Amino acid sequence: MKLGPDPICEFEKFDSKEFENPIHIDELRVIYSTIEEIRQRGARSFYFHPEGPAEALPKVTKLMKESNRQDFGIRLYCIHISENTVVLLNGDIKTKHNPKECPNVATHFERALKIAVKLKKAIDEKLVHFTVNGMNADENFEIDI
Fold it and tell me: Which residues neighbour 38 within 8 Å (Cβ) at sequence distance 6 or greater?
C-alpha cells in the first residue's frame, strides 16, 4: 500500500530497514517465513497478533519472548482482510509495551489502525473489494488518514 505521492509502498520501506542485532535478524526471519507460509496456506487468524482493527506479524510466541528480553521485538503492521488477502504495511522494533508510547512503532501503529478502520468500512460499503489479483474499486480509491 502506497501512501500519498510516495513511490515506495509501506512494506518496501519496512523491507529496506537494516536490523543488526542477531535477535532481531531471527525475528525478521520469522516474519518472512510467516509471510511465505501465508502465501502457501492462506492467511489464517493464528498467524496474526490482533492490535485493534489492525494486526501485527508475527504472533509473538513464548519462545520469542524468552529469546529477546531487551525489547518487544520487531512488529510488522498489517491488515488481515481474508484468508486470501493481507495488506502489509510498515513497522519497526517495539521498545514499549504500549505501541502508542514507542518512538519506533507509534506512527506505524496509528497509521495501521486508521487505514484498517477506513478500509474495512469501504469493504462493508462495497466501495472496494479484493480479488485473487488484488484490489478492485470502481475508480481510484483514496483513504484520508
Answer: 44, 47, 86
